[in-house]
Fold:
Amino acid sequence: AARVSASFGEMLLLVAMYFHSNQLSSIIELVCSTLGMKIVIKPSSLSKMKTIFTQEIFTEQGFLPIHCIYQLLRSRAFTKHKVSIKVHKTVHLC
Structure:
């Protein structure tokens, strides 16, 4: 697997998007690939982190400001991390 370099901010936004769309398996996969380790993470163990991300850090009820989406598109973060732009667009823009 090719290693992908992303900024810390990109990673946080991606994790927030995954939490808001309840894609916990994608968060687990991202953590494992970022660390380069195969570790067991139970989705249920992410509930406190989800609360922090969705109610404290990224409180926009799943909607990112347009400049954040633009930056994600510009940096090709969706492609790098295999996030469906159609799903993201539907969840965040509709």
User: Anything to note?
Assistant: The chain has a mean pLDDT of 75. The longest helix spans residues 8-20.
